[in-house]
Every structure is written in structure tokens, then in C-alpha cells.
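Troubleshooting log. The previous structure file for this entry was overwritten by mistake, so regenerating from the original sequence record. Sequence copied from the archived sheet and checked twice against the printout by T.R.
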Amino acid sequence: MAPVPRLYMADNIIPSVPSRAPKPPTSSSPKLNKPNRNIGIAVGVSLFCLILLAPTPAGASVEAMRVLAVVALMASLWISEAIPVAATALLPIVLYPLLGIMKSSQVTGSYANHLIYLFMGGFLIAVTMERWNLHKRIALHVILRAGSSPQAVILGFMIATAFLSMWVSNTATTMMMLTIALALVKQFDSNSSQPTDLNDNFSTSLMLGIAYAASVGGTATLIGTPPNAILAGVYEELYHQRITFSGWMSIALPISIFMLICIWLYLTRWAYPSQTESVPGGRESIKTELEQLGPVSSEERWVFAVFVGAALCWILRGFIDWQAIKLVQDSTIAIAAALLLFLLPSKSQKGERLLNWDTAVKIPWDVIVLFGGGFAIAKGFSHTGLTDWIAAQFSLLEGLDLIVILGLIVTSVIFLTEVTSNTATASLLLPLMGALAITLEMDPFLLMAATALACSYAFMLPAATPPNAIIYSSRRVTIMQMVKTGIFINILGVLVLTVAFGVLLPLT
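Regenerated output below.
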């Protein structure tokens, strides 16, 4: 599932949402009733006790089995959402010391990993952009320059959505883009002389394009979606190697662009083609939205400058080998940019800064805690030797071809995240993928990166991702349309990730 429930969902985060826009669900998955939650607790506790009481398998340590018991409990609670997912992520702080796995000072260090501060800084930049409506102005200008045909308009919306989702929460991005899209579709319906089914094709492909672009765009950067950050933390914990911001973009951005183009072509050429030559009132509607924003404010200019400066530093840092900045990491840049926003004054609001604490507290703190929980799981795996023991259990897969293994794993992860949180899935599976890579004597990055991306490639169900849920709430897309369209995009994702990580990247 795409990012964790309740990201940027407060009504005052998107001040421009009109009353006609439906409110999105407050969770990325359906609310579970009390009996289901109780079952989740019962199953989790039962698995926890069974693993603790079972004889220790040959080759495994007692501490490793205790970590496995904690992971089984956390998996049950995450899947059932019996308690808030962020609360589940805190369990290692209590259970690791009680079970003699490691000291509190060791486990709590996972919750202060330097990558958490990369995301924190990224979130602070994002909420500042939202505070001054900079994200909306960027989106409108991209759409305005795309063209007037239905295909061009949809491409403009998808490019704007994908770009913003690289830096801003895909939930906030989708809500904003839905607001603009609904106004445009209403104009199209009232002015168009085309048959209703063609109008429906345009609105359906536009809505689905926004949802899918939000998920795909977020995978292009380390701060775009939680599984990417978890991958970086787990990989560093297990192999003591860092995935840089620029290094990740060099791999994920081309995949994201290719997926975006394929999705656009499928939606506009095959799934929901529109024969009309231009969208009635389309450019006028976008220009009206821009006029309502007014002239570019000094606050927007400064926020944009800080945003561009941070992005350039993240991208260029991997190519600059200066001894003077050797200790500077991506998290350093993120926090420096956030602190600069706290310092720069607002011209229109005397005594205010570009970023204040009332705005800062709106960042998704639950996601930050979830990152810590994922890193704590990885630390438990490496500290107790559980990774090596699990790797030995995968020996049956040694004879299989890399492409087959990748295809099976990517397929399983994509369809699993249709019904589970992608953050929880990444936290649980990435250490296992690292262990599997050891057994298969392959580059662990290939298997783990493919898994991390697959966690964000769920396109079938409204409950799969917050963007899907928000778009479904517009009542412009039915569940059947989402399933029929999404299953093709899921299969496309399987093929793209399998070829990219099984064929192309090993050749580089």
C-alpha cells in the first residue's frame, strides 16, 4: 500500500479545496471492525508465544528466534491494524530488552537513524510549499503548458502529479490535483457536445492517471515514499553501504518515467480513448485557477529557491568528492534547508517566518516512527544472526534463474500491498530479501530495490493506496474500472521491475 494512513489529511493542509470536492478516507485501508482487530491481536500473541516456546532450530541462536517472534507479532498487528501502525513500530523498544536481544540504548538508536532526519527535513520543506500554495502554482503551470487535447491535458496532470509526489506527500498531491481536475471535468461536461461515454472516458482516464502518477512519481526519490527510505536504512544496517539520493535517482527516475509514459499511453489510447480534439474551457479553467492564486509572492520565491537548492545539493553531492564536505550527508542537507525556512522572514505576514512550528507539527510523525520500527527489525536481524539463518533456509531456490526469482518476488509483493500497508510490508520483507540474496550469491541491492519499488506499485483497489482511495471518493471511477485497469498496470509493473533489475542493471 502506498504511504501510511492519515498522511497530510488535515483539512487545513490544503486550504484551496472547495466544498464540492469529496473528503478522502482518513486511512489507506478500510476500517477493521473490533472482532477482526481482536483476532489480529490473538493471532499475533499466539505466534509470538509459539515461536518463543518452540525448540531452537539447528544453526539459529535463541536471540534470533526471539527476534523472529517479535517480527511475527508485529506483522500480525500491522496486517490487522489492531492498534495504530506507528504504535506497533515501537514494540522493539520494549521487547528487545525484555527478551535479552539487545540493550535499550542500542535499539532506540534505530529510531534516530540519519535517514529519519532526511525524511523529516523533506517533510518540512513539503509542508512549507503547501503553506504558501507553491505546489499548486507549479502544478497549474505544468498543466497549462501541456496542450489542449484530452491526451495532452491528462499527460500534463500526470507529469505535475508525479513531479510533486517526488518531494511532497502523494496524499496531499492527489487531493490538490483532484480539486483542479474536478473543476476541469465539470467544465468539460457542461461545454462538450461529445457523447457522454467519451466524456466519461476523459474523466476516468484523468482520475486514474492522477492516482497512478502519484504512486509512480513517489518512487523516484528517497524521500518520495516510505519504502525507499526503509530500503536505504536496512541496506546500510545489513551491508554498511549507503544509498545516496543521487544514486537512487539515477536508477529509479528512469523507471518512474518509463512507467509514467506507459500508463499514460494505456489510459488514453487503449483503456479510455477520447475522440474530441480539445477540452472545452480547459486552458481557461487552469488560467482562472492561476488568477485566483494571484501574483507570485516573495514567500513562494524564497521557498522555491530553498527547495531547488536542496534538490540540487542532494543530486550533486554524489558527484562531488571534496574533503571539506566529506561528512555532509543527505540528511544534513535536508535539515539545513528546513532550518533556513524557519529563519527566513515572511514579507506579507509581519513577524512570521516561512515555516513556523504550527505548520511543522503537521508533518506525518507516525511515518517517522514507522521508519524507526523498520530499522529496528533490520538491526535485530543483523545483531542476532537471524539474516544468516534465514538465508540458509532459502537454499531450495538456488537452482532457479534470477529472472524467475525476481518475477515471483515482485509479483507477490505487488499483489500483497493491495491489501497491506506498503511501509509495513517493506519493513518485514527487505531484511528477508537481503538474506535471500546472500543464499543466491547475488547483489542484494537488486533484490531489495526491486522489492522496495514493488511495495509502491499497487494500482487495483481503492484501499491499496491513499491516491487510489482519494480518486475513488470522487465518484468518477468505479471499483470495477479501477480493478480492470489496475490489474494491467500491476502486470506492467511486474514486467518492468523484473527486466530492469534482472536484465538491465546487472549489465551496467
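Residues 11-507 form one domain. Archived copy saved in two places this time.
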